[in-house]
Fold this protein.
Amino acid sequence: MRIFPISLCLAWLLAAFSSRAGDGPVEQWSVFELKLTGPATGNPFVDVQLSARFTLGETTVAVTGFYDGDGIYRLRFMPGQPGIWHYQTTCNIPSLNDVAGTLTVQPPRPGNHGPVRVAHMYHFAYADGTPYKPLGTTCYAWTQQGPELEAATLATLAASPFNKLRMCVFPKRYDWNTNEPPLYPFAGHATNHWDFTRFNPAYFQHLEHRIQDLQHLGIEADVILFHPYDDGHWGFDRMPASADDLYLHYVTARLASLRNVWWSLANEYDFMKEKKDSDFVRFGEIISREDPYHHLISIHNGQLMFNHTLPWITHVSIQNGSAVEDAGRAELFRDVYRKPVVFDEVKYEGNLPRRWGNLSAEELVFRFWEGTVAGTYVGHGETYLSPDNIIWWSKGGALKGHSPARLAFLKKVLDDSPAAGLDPIDKWQNPSIAGQASAYYLIYLGKQTPKSWEFLLPKPPLATNQVPVEGMQFTADVLDTWNMTIIPVPGHFTLHKKDNYTYADQAGRAITLPGRPYMAIRLKRVSE
Amino acid sequence: MRIFPISLCLAWLLAAFSSRAGDGPVEQWSVFELKLTGPATGNPFVDVQLSARFTLGETTVAVTGFYDGDGIYRLRFMPGQPGIWHYQTTCNIPSLNDVAGTLTVQPPRPGNHGPVRVAHMYHFAYADGTPYKPLGTTCYAWTQQGPELEAATLATLAASPFNKLRMCVFPKRYDWNTNEPPLYPFAGHATNHWDFTRFNPAYFQHLEHRIQDLQHLGIEADVILFHPYDDGHWGFDRMPASADDLYLHYVTARLASLRNVWWSLANEYDFMKEKKDSDFVRFGEIISREDPYHHLISIHNGQLMFNHTLPWITHVSIQNGSAVEDAGRAELFRDVYRKPVVFDEVKYEGNLPRRWGNLSAEELVFRFWEGTVAGTYVGHGETYLSPDNIIWWSKGGALKGHSPARLAFLKKVLDDSPAAGLDPIDKWQNPSIAGQASAYYLIYLGKQTPKSWEFLLPKPPLATNQVPVEGMQFTADVLDTWNMTIIPVPGHFTLHKKDNYTYADQAGRAITLPGRPYMAIRLKRVSE
């Protein structure tokens, strides 16, 4: 567990975007910010077109600037390589045009692995190659709850296993979450007649500080750009297309330089009745065109899956209430999309009078393991009723459930698993066996309560060169995924080809099990 | 069951394409054929570009002609409306150019419902609106087995419940199926050095006669255009792109006028190692551009799903060895594609020493029912070893298994089900309940063996206006899907809203069950 003093969290609020021109060298994958002063009259959000080109050798990165209020303009750049970069601005305002300079970029410091990318088709890795195995949670409206509760949320996250957080840009209004936010994203609050051409810089400054807070905890921010939990109350769910597009342009200019940003075009996109699928396609095209770093992009559904085969969608974000009850269901989405599959919403641990919000901790942990051995990733959420209406899934605060400790145990297992990820080995016969053939196997027994498990490995998937061979040796561990124990099995198991489809132990050994549910078996090849 | 004298089958062989110019009126959705005589020298397959436009009022259909050997050219047209159509040819050979005439089209006779189309997003109907509920089987190479065995196959089909047949255009070479075909599709047999620019008309004449034989049995022909079961033996799996395209052009010109044709671009497309996904996209684009009637198009996979979101793919043809073990798996594909889902291969009933070919009849019938209550369709295949190597799945002949009788029972249930199809009612909670909310419910209990079923209906899907209402009345039947019995439950069940998610019987009644597996319950609303 990470140790996270609350004072540190407040310090980060003040220290965001400290890398500025003239401040000395900038770290790779951190933010270089060029602050310029220009006109404060008219509507600088739409009147001023500011951009810059950052160049190092053959590499050129085009970056869009933004207006931050009070005559301040900013250009933010996340350098992807060390070296001396040159930059030069372009602007329709002469005083902001042709501003040029250099910055020195140094290699990243320990703990900075860069943005997360897709790796091995179904998995993720940071830009420096370090595997990233998502274990996400959800606090949709945590950044709109005021400093005290927001600090508490950060402290809870710091002590948690979670390394991804789903969070909305816009305020949220829904059952158990009807408080007005401290700030609003647009000018015009008093009347609720927003001026969608004028952003409220304070709103976005606060948001980006919170994303940086997460970054310092090693947590990816899965930034949700639109959602239906407004229902016309503020109307941010039904802005005109021109306002949607301007908003995406502004958010991309402000946030794209933060290495831990992921773009989630919407939550429950199909519940936004004022929008069509084609609107979200346009949003995705805008973001993928304007984000110079190509952060991960996806979109989360209610009842209807989005077309995740579109080329700019990097991974599949899914809500499904039953797919991860069974690895054999979950893995079907891998076959369909050939992209990483993240079940961001699978119902929540809690006790709400809603079917989507009253899973037991045992059931949620079970679902994580089924998803894991399907070669997919699962997200957490918690919905325990509370007299103060502070429910983790919406506002953050404290975690009350019993799944997070078990998910920390799962994270330990994931961190110890192959860098290439866990893939189904023999998907149409044994959906509960994942790993990398002939090297590592994770077998999850779910709700079954056997007293023993016969050592039997399936043949590998087609088109692999990792074929098991007679005589290969494996160690075995028995994992109790609920009681969080790992007990090694004495001795080695030695492969013997039993038939066309299976490999057994030469001595025909089995592994003794306690007859409890939620057990797993881990096999690792003994290195030669 | 249909009665099918073998003599009739042979008669059809001779009677194909009897509607010719001057023969009097043509039936809607049957074939009008214009036979012309032209040059037999050079290479008429590529030298002559023959087409015609058929016009009725505002409707114009462009039809491609083809060379049928011996100086004979043919243009085939399937009229979609009654009336007097005019036609006029275009050709680069003057004697075939500007041939004009009329044909009188009469309404279809009973039993002719036109081609099958997609209906209600996830289902099918004939062009005249009659529901079509696919219950398919597979005889990949049946048209290459000689007249005796082919006649036997037709007789078996006539006595079977099947209304769709998967069959290959090209000959097949695979385990248990290594005989050479009587004919070859291209010129050049003696040397196995084919001339891919010269087709063998006799090969295609035979194929289209067989498709017409199926049409007269009310069976849709799922015509597989490419497959990997050649492995270079003849090389039809690895022709150059120009030959592939010419072949598709020729097949479309010959077959598209047959109303029972479906296009399956390939079987196990991903096992065709000489082809890329982009080749199959090109094939689909060619077919959908050149087929003037827009017959159904799909493509069947081995291990990797094709991108069935492409707009010209009308329905999803899937091989999956485990998806229909569980309705909760099968229905996920509906969510993904929003198209009809047909599991054309789910392993076969049989006793082959292969995992894909040794299901019990019970298991295959179980899979059909799981797929059915998932709102999808399942395909049959049979692989019982035989000393003469005549296995239904490849060569046809006789059916030996125990599933077809039970599939006939399923067909009876399907024929009695709503025209709008069976859709999941409450997919994330009760994957085994399908129907049309508030009108018809089919509940499949699979391998469970309960002694009773409490009358409990789930809330309907979002976005339906078919909401159950207090006091609605239902009749119930108990179906034994293996023993093929339907036993009505006495009296009516009257709806009472139990909670936010369920409706019970006002009297709290349950339905008594025999404690055997494979039971289903059918509920029908009592009309008011």
